[in-house]
Fold each of these.
Amino acid sequence: MSASPLVFSDQDLQDCNTLGLPARAAVAVLDDESSIPALCAALAASAGTAAAAPLFVLGGGSNLVMAARPRHRILRVALRGIRLWDETPGHWVVEAAAGESWHGFVDHCLTQGWPGLENLALIPGTVGAAPVQNIGAYGLELDQRLHSVVAWDLRAGRVRELHPRECGFAYRDSMFKRDGAGRWLIVRVRFMLPKDWTPRLDYPDLRDHPGLGGGRGASGLAGPGHRTAAGPTPRQIFDAVCDIRRRKLPDPAVLGNAGSFFKNPVVDAGQAAVLQQRFPDLRGYPQADGRVKLAAGWLIEQAGWKGRRLGPVGMHRTQALVLVNHGGAQAADVQALARAVRADVQERFGVDLEQEPVLLD
Ligand code: EPU
């Protein structure tokens, strides 16, 4: 059976980015892996010519600031399917296609009795985008559960199976992100889900959640906190994470946003100590390498931006790290606010914030 060729056509993309920015571009939808070799051939044939508009691989558009008329051609990944790919004495290895909804996939795994991803519930976006920014929340990062990523190297025109060591993972970062959104086309992602599951309750908000029997004496910065004997079930953790996120974070379907707009900055121990002295309430998490990850939301709030607007955009009223579109914003409005927030945090704390969402121009 021959694959249907990918056809690019001019399309509206406002509903394809969670900030809800108006945009139009040439878009093709990838719903069949067998179309990829022809895509690679077409890319190789047009490389270096004037006709070679760069390609941008789009998942759920939840980590994106889209310009109104990006010069990129957009490949929307709509590959579907979830299966138990392998089973070892210690693990279920579950494979999901890149176009699956991340949250739907986490939910499905729990329903099947494959726990381990529940701390990452309700993160917007697709399975294929998850390794790109190495999604993480509530004490778990994706790379801790990853088996492998099946991805096409569009430049080389071949498919690779990449194991975590080859993906260059770091906090909110990976080789896929560093290499740019036109090099790698992730088609499937495999996860190692442990049969001897234990709850991950390191994160204070989660440990203290009433739905998990928390709130009794747990406090302070992150530290070991697994509750094992008769502890909560994976589904209870999933529900608690959903509850925390729903209370703190705006729903992109209601108020456009791209989640955390900046990374939490990691500073060296000396700088953290100086800041701690000047600002005793500073929120920070010691890292394994001795550095300290500061809570960007706290820095932004202290700089006076929590709930404050600049034109049609603003920083959210319950989580200052989230930039929201109050309606009618363009990419330039978003970037103007981002610059203003960065400048104020730099002036007050001497700390540089790094934008997390990718600018698609
Ligand atoms: N804080 C403030 N003011 C604010 C926001 C936060 O003082 O306006 C303080 C909180 O009180 C807390 C600390 O900052 O002491 C950390 O806040 P929170 O628990 O909300 O987490 P975060 O560090 O702001 C990170 C991720 C989130 C993830 C949560 C939970 C990044 C960039 N963001 O946020 O990810 O859900 O931890 O693990 O690492 C996302 O990427 O879209 C996202 C929501």
Amino acid sequence: MKDELIKHARQVLSDNDRGTYTVPTHGLYPFQWNWDSALSALGFAHFDEPRAWTEIDTLMAHQWDDGMVPHIIFHEEDDGYFPGPDVWGTGRPVPTSGITQPPVAGFAVRRIHDRATDKALATQKAKALLPKIHAWHQWFYRCRDPQGTGLIALLHPWESGRDNSVDWDDAFERVPTDGVGDFVRRDTSHANPAHRPTDEQYKRYIWLVQTFRSLRWDNTRLHDASPFRIVDPGFNAILIRSCQDVADLAGRLGMSDIASEARAMADKGIAAMDSLWSDALGQYQCYDRAAGRPVDSASIGGILAAFAPIPKERAAALATRIEKLAKACNYLVPSHDPTAPEFDGLRYWRGPVWLIVNYMIADGLERAGQVAMAERILADSVRLIEKSGFAEYHHPITAEPCGGAHFTWTAAMVIEIFSTCEVPA
Ligand code: GLC
């Protein structure tokens, strides 16, 4: 079974491979997505290290001058996706979106470097990539944390990677829809509309894009101008972990300035993160910076915080929290608490299980000594794929495959999990 699944996963990766980048899946997502690429590189690295490095090289080649790395790179024209380059209007030579996504590339580079069999190639690639990734991390703290709190804010739900999470609902109410003309969504022609965000949400997504565009994508202005400013513990955890990994690897490669700056950013971030802990929920929670109050929402963002080097007792509390969630579903970890009224097991980030998030939570829990829970999460991940295939996401109770099929990062995670962890299959 294990060999069959790995073979199938490699097939998914090669079918979605466009030479220098990978599409998340044919049809629904026809371009390069930021954190998809970084995580997919982990899968490639097990059978083609040069190809893994190329994936991250291509992503970082489209970094903006201010350090930002965009969430989509529109390498080719394809009118099967909305909103395309004409809506974003970022004026880049190869069109890109104007917002970013979880900066997991720093973590991926360190992990691929650590495990590389071709150390010369790995060191050459890492030495070229680390300054760019470090500049991206500095951009976050400069442009998305202008008050220097140690925590960065997201300005668009799509930046979080958890597009329609319940976490954004209240803040999203403040985002107007006036001036948003008619448009035709393309996602719902590739995937079941019941698995996707609603039309109302889509209008607000587009309002934010149009507003940022009217500010010419000037990142020194966007933070204060946006009515949507949310501090997400999961996103900050990924940033902190990547800063830490950049610091470690840069230190080993003799890049001492980067190492010390990155270490300072990680230390500051981890200290600030504790302000997001909620005793009532038993996990971290988002903070609505525009409204000045915490977001009372039991989503996976507050559990993904485990990916950062949080204190051991917090990791233990998160493992207890996941135990509780396990009583309400059959497959860990649901993207929203199944006992909460907003839970929707089919709809994207409002309930379904996502393998990439499982992988990062398990990785963090294992590092913090929560090995049994980490193994349980990975075992559930494998059971899901065995039962329902390489879908974009799955229902946490029925295992129903949702969203797009033949999905790149789901396949990459299967290769990664089988190749590096002891899971039954
Ligand atoms: C969706 C997901 C996002 C992902 C993208 C491509 O927008 O919410 O996290 O990067 O699809 O797979």
